Amino acid sequence: MRRMLGVLAGALAVAALAAPAQADNGHFVTGAAACRDTGAGFECTGEVAGLGGTTFEVTAEATGTARVECVNPAGHMVTGQDTEVDVTATSGRQQTPHHGRSAFRLTSTPVGVGPVPACPNPIWTAKVLDVTFGTATLTLSANGANAAEITVDVR
């Protein structure tokens, strides 16, 4: 019986050493995250650390006010109505680096809006000239679970 317990304890110790590290403390490196306005979108850069799992993903979400221009079917342009838009950017799922730390750069795609409510008529075409953002929320997911979240000014 004693020998069996010894073998079992040894097997458990080997299993514990072989288990992959978990992302218990994935986080944004303090002061490293920054977001900038690119006109009709934004770009965020930074660094995450404490990654111990197999995959991670960084996403950024921001709400902004789009300045819109409308074009009627005859080709005449008029000022459209400012329209609230939600814009996102993502790193996509990435393999966790061996050292558990990674830099990121997220670029949103230029946002578009439909003719309603931006233009006076639904058959007109809306064109986004610029978007003004306040803040972006950055979220770090490790192994599919949220690990950390911060809010950054979009400058």
Give a short synopsis of this structure:
By secondary structure, this protein is mainly beta.
Please explain how this structure is put together.
- The protein is mainly β.
- It has a single domain, classed as Immunoglobulin-like (Sandwich).
- It contains two helices and ten strands.
- The protein has helices spanning 2-18, 115-118, and strands at 27-28, 34-37, 42-49, 55-71, 77-79, 83-90, 94-95, 102-107, 125-142, 145-153.
- Strands 4, 5, 6, 7, 9 and 10 form a six-stranded antiparallel sheet that branches. Strands 1, 2, 3 and 8 form a four-stranded antiparallel sheet that branches.
- The model is unreliable at 3-23 (pLDDT under 50).
| Helical residues, percent | 10-25%
What count of structural domains? 1
Structural class: mainly beta
Overall pLDDT: 88
Total helical segments: 2
H/E series: HEEEEEEEEHEE
From the spread of the alpha carbons, the general shape counts as elongated
CATH class: Mainly Beta
What CATH architecture would you give? Answer: Sandwich
- Distance from N terminus to C terminus (CA atoms, Å) equals 68 Å
Give the strand content.
over 45%
Integer-rounded radius of gyration = 24 Å
Task: State the total count of DSSP E strands.
Answer: 10
Query: Which segments are poorly predicted (pLDDT under 50) over 5 or more consecutive residues?
Result: 3-23
Characterize the main sheet: 6 strands, antiparallel
Could you please say which CATH topology applies here?
Answer: Immunoglobulin-like
Protein name: Secreted protein
Keywords: Signal
Organism: Amycolatopsis methanolica 239
Signal peptide: 1-23
